[in-house]
Amino acid sequence: MFSAAGANLMNAVSKTAARQFSTSGGVSKKPVVAIAGSTGAVGQELLDLIKERSFPFADIKLLASARSAGKTQDFMGKTYTVEELKEDSFEGVDIAFFSAGGGRSKQFAPAAAKAGAVVIDNSSAYRMDPEVPLVVPEVNPDAAFDRPKGIIANPNCSTIIMNMVVWPLHQKAGVERVVVSTYQAASGAGAAAMEELEQQAKDWVAEKSPVTQDIFGRQYIFNLFSHNSDVDQETGYNEEETKMIKETKKIFSDPNIQVTATCIRVPVLRAHCESINVTLKNSMTEDEARELLANSPGVSVQDDRVANKFPEPLASSFKDDCFVGRIRHDVSQPEGKGLDMFVAGDQIRKGAALNAIQIAELLMSRS
């Protein structure tokens, strides 16, 4: 029988081991899971994917802000009560998915990691932290197993969608430069933005003027505008564009790859699109690129010139893969050294929740 001092020592050792366990290696094949931000669009998508992919878990904790605490949600035959997200919410948790915003991640993710959980964070809070891996499982899976702070960052949604097709080209032919223009759906700004776009459509039909403009402060339907993130007054790049530039270098472990981006909001409910131009180090034909991408995990080629059928956000919504088409030689560059593509991917799914689930599955596969 242990003395009180012995029991305390054992508890201390156990907690230390848990903290060490969270910084490297795999996790339990049937983990206790927490979702911070469970009532938001990404949190709800995480639950959908856990069910769809038969993601094994011993228990789930639904965490959200104080205003959502006490709400109930039926999930897989059981009723769960949403708890307020606090620093002491993570005792016994193996994997903590965070989709509650950067401020909440900075406040609570360290506490989750200290409690022994592996944190998979969807916010921008830790993406450029040199001690936090930034992971796309199809690109840099090994990075997930070296996490000094016990935290793994999910990249920006636009970065993920772009690099699902740029990475295979980079591996094969070397990509020197990427020029990308994004056409980003309301989903990137959360459920409230999606609801406002629907409301603006109703307002338009009802001839209400002006239409509801609570989220972006402008008409969204029948309009395009520069991404709503802050613009750097010196460079002219907004935060979304800067994320794509910096995150790509970190994910690829290649500081020399050059990226420039222009990010635009479009009146689409769900799924982002991107027009991508790459400059290659080594020549590649259109057919070689098409075959390479068709055999790349998480990528589907939709490139029918005869029928003029290419990726579209509606057809890409609620799909796991990123769709690529309009694959063609860039006539402004030397033969075979430049390619143009058009990509569509579900921002909530592969751009956020699915990527996070895949990271967790990756960790469990090596436990």
From TrEMBL:
Transmembrane segments: none annotated. InterPro entries: Asp_semialdehyde_DH, Asp_semialdehyde_DH_beta, NAD(P)-bd_dom_sf, Semialdehyde_DH_NAD-bd, Semialdhyde_DH_dimer_dom. Residues 32-147 form the Semialdehyde dehydrogenase NAD-binding domain. Its EC number is 1.2.1.11. The keyword Cell wall biogenesis/degradation does not apply. It catalyses: L-aspartate 4-semialdehyde + phosphate + NADP(+) = 4-phospho-L-aspartate + NADPH + H(+). One of its GO terms (molecular function) is NADP binding. Keywords: Amino-acid biosynthesis, Diaminopimelate biosynthesis, Lysine biosynthesis, Methionine biosynthesis, NADP, Oxidoreductase, Threonine biosynthesis. Pfam families: Semialdhyde_dh (PF01118), Semialdhyde_dhC (PF02774). The active site is at 157 (acyl-thioester intermediate), 272 (proton acceptor). Pathway: Amino-acid biosynthesis; L-threonine biosynthesis; L-threonine from L-aspartate: step 2/5; Amino-acid biosynthesis; L-methionine biosynthesis via de novo pathway; L-homoserine from L-aspartate: step 2/3. GO terms for biological process: diaminopimelate biosynthetic process; isoleucine biosynthetic process; lysine biosynthetic process via diaminopimelate; methionine biosynthetic process; threonine biosynthetic process. NCBIfam families: asd_B, PRK14874.1. Homodimer. Belongs to the aspartate-semialdehyde dehydrogenase family. PANTHER family: ASPARTATE-SEMIALDEHYDE DEHYDROGENASE, DEHYDROGENASE, PUTATIVE-RELATED. This is aspartate-semialdehyde dehydrogenase. It comes from Hondaea fermentalgiana.
